[in-house]
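Page 47, continued from p. 46.
Same chain as before, 186 aa.
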Amino acid sequence: MVDWSQLLLPILLSTALVFVASSLIHMVLKFHDPEYLKLSNEDEVRAVVRAGSPSPGQYVIPQCSHGKGPPAPETLKKFEEGPVAVVYVRPTGMVKLGPFLGKWIVYVAVVSALTAYVARSVLHPGEPYLNVFRLVGATAWLAYGWQSPADSIWMGKPWIVTVKFLADALVFALLTAGTFAWLWPR
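Result:
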Protein backbone atom coordinates (compact mmCIF):
# COMPACT_ATOMS: atom_id res chain seq x y z
CA MET A 1 0.00 0.00 0.00
CA VAL A 2 1.18 3.52 -0.82
CA ASP A 3 2.05 5.60 2.23
CA TRP A 4 0.18 8.89 2.68
CA SER A 5 3.47 10.80 2.87
CA GLN A 6 4.18 9.72 -0.71
CA LEU A 7 0.90 11.26 -1.86
CA LEU A 8 1.36 14.67 -0.25
CA LEU A 9 3.26 16.12 -3.22
CA PRO A 10 0.68 14.96 -5.83
CA ILE A 11 -2.13 16.30 -3.63
CA LEU A 12 -0.51 19.71 -3.24
CA LEU A 13 0.70 20.00 -6.84
CA SER A 14 -2.63 18.95 -8.34
CA THR A 15 -4.37 21.44 -6.02
CA ALA A 16 -2.13 24.22 -7.30
CA LEU A 17 -2.56 23.22 -10.96
CA VAL A 18 -6.36 23.03 -10.71
CA PHE A 19 -6.46 26.38 -8.91
CA VAL A 20 -4.38 28.02 -11.67
CA ALA A 21 -6.44 26.35 -14.43
CA SER A 22 -9.72 27.48 -12.89
CA SER A 23 -8.36 31.01 -12.54
CA LEU A 24 -7.39 31.04 -16.21
CA ILE A 25 -10.78 29.65 -17.28
CA HIS A 26 -12.75 32.19 -15.25
CA MET A 27 -10.57 35.31 -15.21
CA VAL A 28 -8.51 35.21 -18.40
CA LEU A 29 -10.58 33.23 -20.89
CA LYS A 30 -13.87 34.34 -19.27
CA PHE A 31 -15.38 31.11 -20.57
CA HIS A 32 -18.40 31.39 -18.27
CA ASP A 33 -19.24 35.09 -18.62
CA PRO A 34 -22.07 34.56 -21.17
CA GLU A 35 -23.92 32.35 -18.67
CA TYR A 36 -24.69 35.20 -16.29
CA LEU A 37 -27.64 37.02 -17.81
CA LYS A 38 -29.03 40.40 -16.79
CA LEU A 39 -32.71 40.96 -16.18
CA SER A 40 -34.12 43.77 -18.33
CA ASN A 41 -35.76 45.23 -15.21
CA GLU A 42 -32.93 44.52 -12.77
CA ASP A 43 -33.42 47.69 -10.72
CA GLU A 44 -37.11 46.97 -10.19
CA VAL A 45 -36.42 43.35 -9.22
CA ARG A 46 -33.68 44.48 -6.81
CA ALA A 47 -36.06 46.97 -5.21
CA VAL A 48 -38.77 44.35 -4.71
CA VAL A 49 -36.36 41.77 -3.28
CA ARG A 50 -34.72 44.39 -1.03
CA ALA A 51 -38.16 45.46 0.26
CA GLY A 52 -38.75 41.88 1.43
CA SER A 53 -35.46 41.92 3.40
CA PRO A 54 -34.61 38.28 2.72
CA SER A 55 -31.79 36.80 4.72
CA PRO A 56 -29.03 35.05 2.77
CA GLY A 57 -30.26 31.72 1.49
CA GLN A 58 -31.88 29.78 -1.31
CA TYR A 59 -35.41 30.76 -2.33
CA VAL A 60 -37.89 29.35 -4.81
CA ILE A 61 -40.55 31.32 -6.66
CA PRO A 62 -43.33 30.44 -6.28
CA GLN A 63 -42.79 28.76 -2.93
CA CYS A 64 -45.28 26.07 -2.05
CA SER A 65 -45.26 23.68 0.85
CA HIS A 66 -45.17 20.04 -0.10
CA GLY A 67 -48.22 18.84 1.77
CA LYS A 68 -50.41 15.90 1.02
CA GLY A 69 -52.72 16.19 -1.92
CA PRO A 70 -52.65 18.38 -5.00
CA PRO A 71 -51.44 21.99 -4.82
CA ALA A 72 -54.00 24.69 -4.13
CA PRO A 73 -55.51 26.36 -7.23
CA GLU A 74 -53.82 29.68 -6.36
CA THR A 75 -50.43 27.90 -6.26
CA LEU A 76 -51.07 26.29 -9.65
CA LYS A 77 -51.97 29.71 -11.04
CA LYS A 78 -48.64 31.16 -9.79
CA PHE A 79 -46.76 28.41 -11.62
CA GLU A 80 -48.74 29.00 -14.81
CA GLU A 81 -48.22 32.79 -14.69
CA GLY A 82 -44.51 32.51 -13.86
CA PRO A 83 -41.79 33.20 -13.34
CA VAL A 84 -40.59 29.93 -11.82
CA ALA A 85 -37.17 30.51 -10.33
CA VAL A 86 -34.53 29.50 -7.83
CA VAL A 87 -32.86 32.56 -6.32
CA TYR A 88 -29.74 32.67 -4.17
CA VAL A 89 -29.39 35.68 -1.90
CA ARG A 90 -25.95 36.53 -0.55
CA PRO A 91 -25.13 38.95 2.24
CA THR A 92 -25.42 42.60 1.23
CA GLY A 93 -22.19 44.36 0.28
CA MET A 94 -19.49 44.21 -2.33
CA VAL A 95 -18.50 40.64 -3.19
CA LYS A 96 -15.02 39.96 -1.84
CA LEU A 97 -13.19 37.46 -3.99
CA GLY A 98 -10.68 36.41 -1.30
CA PRO A 99 -13.03 34.27 0.81
CA PHE A 100 -14.39 32.54 -2.31
CA LEU A 101 -10.87 31.74 -3.52
CA GLY A 102 -9.89 30.49 -0.06
CA LYS A 103 -12.88 28.15 0.07
CA TRP A 104 -12.22 27.03 -3.50
CA ILE A 105 -8.60 26.08 -2.80
CA VAL A 106 -9.67 24.12 0.29
CA TYR A 107 -12.32 22.35 -1.81
CA VAL A 108 -9.76 21.51 -4.51
CA ALA A 109 -7.36 20.17 -1.86
CA VAL A 110 -10.13 18.01 -0.39
CA VAL A 111 -10.97 16.63 -3.85
CA SER A 112 -7.28 15.83 -4.41
CA ALA A 113 -7.03 14.18 -0.98
CA LEU A 114 -10.18 12.09 -1.54
CA THR A 115 -8.89 11.13 -4.97
CA ALA A 116 -5.61 10.09 -3.34
CA TYR A 117 -7.60 8.00 -0.85
CA VAL A 118 -9.38 6.14 -3.66
CA ALA A 119 -6.14 5.63 -5.59
CA ARG A 120 -4.31 4.47 -2.46
CA SER A 121 -7.10 1.97 -1.76
CA VAL A 122 -6.93 0.40 -5.21
CA LEU A 123 -3.45 0.93 -6.66
CA HIS A 124 -0.04 -0.31 -5.58
CA PRO A 125 3.44 1.20 -5.75
CA GLY A 126 4.90 0.80 -9.23
CA GLU A 127 1.49 0.84 -10.89
CA PRO A 128 1.70 1.74 -14.61
CA TYR A 129 1.15 5.40 -15.52
CA LEU A 130 -2.05 4.70 -17.46
CA ASN A 131 -3.64 2.73 -14.60
CA VAL A 132 -3.06 5.62 -12.19
CA PHE A 133 -4.18 8.17 -14.77
CA ARG A 134 -7.46 6.37 -15.51
CA LEU A 135 -8.50 5.78 -11.91
CA VAL A 136 -7.48 9.20 -10.63
CA GLY A 137 -8.96 10.95 -13.68
CA ALA A 138 -12.34 9.24 -13.37
CA THR A 139 -12.47 9.84 -9.61
CA ALA A 140 -11.54 13.51 -9.92
CA TRP A 141 -13.99 14.09 -12.80
CA LEU A 142 -16.80 12.58 -10.75
CA ALA A 143 -15.89 14.78 -7.79
CA TYR A 144 -15.50 18.02 -9.75
CA GLY A 145 -18.31 17.77 -12.23
CA TRP A 146 -21.10 15.36 -11.74
CA GLN A 147 -23.32 17.42 -9.45
CA SER A 148 -23.96 19.75 -12.38
CA PRO A 149 -26.42 17.49 -14.25
CA ALA A 150 -28.52 17.20 -11.09
CA ASP A 151 -28.60 21.01 -10.91
CA SER A 152 -29.92 21.12 -14.48
CA ILE A 153 -32.50 18.44 -13.75
CA TRP A 154 -33.77 19.80 -10.43
CA MET A 155 -32.82 23.49 -10.27
CA GLY A 156 -33.31 24.48 -13.89
CA LYS A 157 -29.69 25.38 -14.59
CA PRO A 158 -29.36 25.64 -18.38
CA TRP A 159 -27.82 22.50 -19.89
CA ILE A 160 -25.17 24.52 -21.76
CA VAL A 161 -23.93 25.74 -18.38
CA THR A 162 -23.75 22.15 -17.16
CA VAL A 163 -21.84 21.07 -20.27
CA LYS A 164 -19.33 23.89 -19.72
CA PHE A 165 -18.89 22.97 -16.06
CA LEU A 166 -18.36 19.33 -17.03
CA ALA A 167 -15.68 20.52 -19.48
CA ASP A 168 -14.02 22.51 -16.67
CA ALA A 169 -14.21 19.44 -14.46
CA LEU A 170 -12.60 17.33 -17.19
CA VAL A 171 -9.69 19.77 -17.43
CA PHE A 172 -9.30 19.67 -13.63
CA ALA A 173 -9.49 15.86 -13.66
CA LEU A 174 -6.88 15.56 -16.42
CA LEU A 175 -4.50 17.82 -14.50
CA THR A 176 -5.06 15.82 -11.33
CA ALA A 177 -4.67 12.49 -13.14
CA GLY A 178 -1.50 13.59 -14.90
CA THR A 179 0.02 14.84 -11.66
CA PHE A 180 -0.74 11.65 -9.73
CA ALA A 181 0.34 9.36 -12.57
CA TRP A 182 3.63 11.28 -12.96
CA LEU A 183 4.40 11.30 -9.23
CA TRP A 184 2.98 7.88 -8.32
CA PRO A 185 5.45 5.95 -6.14
CA ARG A 186 7.54 3.45 -8.09
